[in-house]
Design brief:
The structure is a homodimer of 436-residue chains.
Chain A lengths: L1 E6 L22 E2 L5 E2 L1 H12 L4 E7 L3 H8 L4 E5 L5 H15 L7 E6 L2 E3 L2 H15 L4 E6 L10 E4 L5 E8 L4 H9 L3 E10 H11 L5 H7 L8 H6 L5 E6 L3 E3 L3 H6 L5 E2 L2 E3 L7 E4 L5 E4 L4 E6 L2 E6 L7 H5 L7 E4 L2 E9 L2 E8 L4 E6 L4 E8 L2 E5 L2 E5 L4 E4 L5 E5 L3 E8 L9 E2 L3
Parallel strand pairs in A: 1-4, 1-6, 4-5, 8-12, 14-16, 15-17, 16-18
Antiparallel strand pairs in A: 2-3, 6-11, 7-13, 8-11, 9-10, 9-11, 10-12, 18-19, 20-21, 21-22, 22-29, 23-28, 23-30, 24-27, 24-29, 25-26, 25-28
Helix pairs in contact in A: 3-6, 3-7
């Protein structure tokens, strides 16, 4: 099976664990059978490989998620990077062109498109395999997975099939109806549209060329910024006559808000947390290294990270977005391809950061115009290059880099460094990179 | 008026804002009329001086509170330091001896004893003045302030007066009765015992010499560790025949738990806090520099400091103590006579701290046997002495101090320093002090 996982998300709804650089699919809130922490991404990948050990998985994503994907899955997946955000149709076209032109996938091969963040039973991926086979057989141009609704939700799109058979032609689509309409559709056999579909690669490329003028993957990549924002549903699904839907009635959850996200936690709390005996139906995730004590909390979610602290009634948690938007919070923690950084202290003219550099990784050679930096090595061993001169670094070493000084450091073993930045108006933009 | 403020408190009930080194009376949770933040201590001091500009205020306290008291009140108060904890009777005897032998207060002068943490109207201190006058007049050996009860509390001791007159002889005392008994006492005119009493200094010294063998203040101080732990109520009040009580019916709150403490907040929140419109009767205090977002919280208190995060139903908040006791949390923030320190990062073999040194203050000359330290100066100017050699320090300076190196730093302007400590088993005990 060729499967494309769409990995997007602005990360506001699960603040403070998600943020501008960390989307919800990377939060390690689950546990696998061995009790090891899992993110949505690693959980979905594990389930795919369990259903089809030969599956070829491509993650279609934006630049800023690449580091997190590599950190969590390494080179086990292909990554197709959108140069900028252009909604699902351009993203799927780019991924399709990537599979065809970069990975050599044949035009009559089936491709399954799936969001990266469904919280589902293993049987879901068996259904995806079947969907791929259905696409390959060619009885329809587009094959959708329809999720058996459990309540008349106003949040989802509905697929109205011709019949209630396990596999049926699609009659029409209904976008987010009100509860009464949803109830009526469900009585008539309607299914939720979970954004999963399969097609032959050649079919999608043909649609792509009809709507976008491009020659191949690299050409499409170069033109990407100029493409119109348009969803796959609107550009393809709603215009296509030859659509079939496969009914799926296993477990499926859309963990889009804290309320639903918390339901999927194996334990009521993660991290340093005490819940006293009067707490009920309360979930706490603590990424800070100070304890959280909860007493008498009912139906609540508490989440704490370097970015902030959320204390919310579960039902209210779905209204978080506008509040997070107004915060304009500096990113205090970020996972990077080379490790991570944590902002420890913010002053008017200085910023103190903890840098963790993974073995074999490095900070690239760079300088700053408007700030001095001082590294104090806490632990680990590595090598630094300062204005062209290489030196070994060990715990206790201090390196002062005035503005303009070119510097890099690489880690032989995991390297932990305290970096003090000194200057007025410290910004991430103040950086020049150099080859080394 | 000579007034002794008893400043004790282990700081568990208002965790995480109070801790082993910061008691609740130092938390700046109130506002004065000019909108400036006030602690219980500064509020009470301001109220005393407003009632009696000539009042001589002595704070009886333990060693670890001295820095906080000086930081908040400077040299406007006398401080009588208990060498160790020995309950209220020894503490009051020590303070009485201090007034007599160190401050030269005459034996026929009245002394008023008051806890440092009542949350009261200004009229309370007018009542204290009157209590002092009553003591001076000598109609009774002991004059108590009785607080008009507002409900049959099981938390307080009751004073049973002979009559319901404004000033009455005391019949007897009742310790923390159940609600039914309390109701009965109140119907008969009983008053809450708020721990406020006045006496002539000579009277108390006589009682002190009867129960404790000592010559003067310095002798009592030297013997202090050997004294029996005994409360003033038990040692004196319950045995004394000649007691009068002054009835006080103004505002009085015992802000001993988060529930009551929150009621006294001028605004629902302090610090970086967003409460959405569905929050009700919820108070939030945030001392961290990351935002707290509360949604749909009802009847709750949320408090965050470098020590931890509390999320509690208001009613449950009075049961906090055992949970805080089990935490054995490292102190992450402390106010010192010289400024403050904040623990920024804890690793196995290192600790990163932010030090703020106030102008004119210094860290004393010291060394460590088992850890290296590295200072990076973020802001301010001062002078350091490193192994006997003095040097100026300015922002960007780095000083490396291997184990054994003697070091100190003094601040000309407010000095902010990042200190990285490196070593195995870093402890506060690993410190040698030297004269300089």
């Amino acid at each position: 099976m060729n499967i494309i996982l769409l990995s997007g998300g602005s990360g506001q709804r699960l603040w403070p664990l998600s943020n501008g650089v960390r989307s919800k699919q990377f939060i390690k809130i689950f546990q696998n059978e061995g009790g090891k922490p899992e993110s949505m991404l690693t959980r979905v990948y594990r389930q795919i490989i369990s259903a089809d050990p030969e599956a070829s998985v491509t993650v279609a994503t934006s630049k800023k998620q690449v580091s997190s994907i590599i950190n969590q899955l390494g080179d086990r997946v292909n990554i197709c990077v959108e140069p900028c955000r252009r909604d699902t149709f351009p993203a799927i076209c780019l991924a399709a062109a990537y599979l065809h032109d970069e990975q050599g996938v044949a035009e009559d091969s089936a491709v399954v498109i799936c969001p990266v963040d469904p919280y589902v039973e293993d049987s879901y991926f068996e259904a995806l395999k079947e969907l791929g086979r259905m696409a390959e057989e060619g009885n329809a141009d587009l094959s959708l997975l329809g999720i058996e609704p459990t309540y008349p939700s106003e949040k989802y799109g509905y697929i109205i099939p011709v019949s209630e058979d396990r596999v049926s032609r699609v009659n029409t689509f209904k976008e987010k109806p009100d509860a009464a309409a949803a109830e009526k559709y469900i009585a008539e056999g309607a299914l939720w549209n979970g954004g999963v579909f399969a097609f032959r690669l050649g079919y999608l490329l043909q649609r792509a060329h009809e709507l976008i003028s491009f020659t191949d993957y690299r050409d499409l990549y170069a033109r990407y910024a100029d493409l119109e924002k348009i969803s796959f549903d609107y550009a393809v699904a709603e215009r296509e006559k030859e659509i079939q839907v496969l009914r799926y009635n296993g477990g499926w959850k859309d963990l889009g808000t804290w309320n639903t996200f918390a339901e999927a936690m194996e334990e009521p709390s993660l991290g340093r947390v005490i819940l006293n005996e009067t707490c009920e139906n309360t979930n706490v995730v603590n990424e800070l290294n100070i304890p959280i004590l909860c007493m008498g909390c009912r139906n609540m979610v508490v989440a704490a990270s370097s970015d902030g602290i959320l204390v919310t009634d579960k039902e209210q948690s779905s209204y978080i977005k506008p509040f997070v938007e107004q915060m304009e919070q500096q990113v205090m923690y970020a996972e990077k391809s080379w490790g991570s950084f944590t902002v420890l202290d913010v002053q008017e003219d200085s910023l103190t950061i903890k840098i963790v550099l993974l073995p074999g990784h490095k900070l690239y050679y760079h300088s700053h115009d408007h700030r001095d930096e001082i590294w104090t090595v806490m632990s680990g061993r590595g090598r630094a290059v300062i204005d062209g001169a290489e030196q070994a670094v060990v715990p206790g070493d201090v390196i002062s880099m005035p503005a303009g000084c070119r510097h890099m450091v690489s880690a032989d073993t995991e390297l932990k460094i305290i970096e003090v930045q000194l200057g007025e108006n410290i910004t991430v933009e103040d950086k020049h990179k150099y080859p080394l």
